[in-house]
Amino acid sequence: MNQRDRDQMQFSKRLQQARKNKGYTQQDLADTVNTKKTTISNYETGYSTPSNKMIVELANALDVTTDFLLGRIDSPKKDESPSLPILDTNELWTELKNLDNEDVILLNSLIKRLKKNKYDS
Length: 121
What we know:
Layout: H1 3-22, H2 26-32, H3 37-45, H4 52-62, H5 66-69, H6 89-97, H7 101-120
Helix pairs in contact: 2-3
């Protein structure tokens, strides 16, 4: 068995696992991504391979990542990193004015390090 076949088998298993975890039948998933039940069955048996666009649609419908379906990561969960609150300029200025000198030096050092890392990568 070559690598392509192994990848297809893994995709098929992961698709079926994600579908069942979501509580969907093949028909439910087919309806969600606007295709036929037989198409989903073919993906799950490895008989056919979905397009890249369809892989994205399947992942979105099943609340998993494309990387999970493709076997690149083991966790099916989408990264749900909390978004950082965005301060408007006035709020930021008010916060900065309230810092003591030591904190300003530390903040300045942190900003320089962040900029350096951003432009070095």
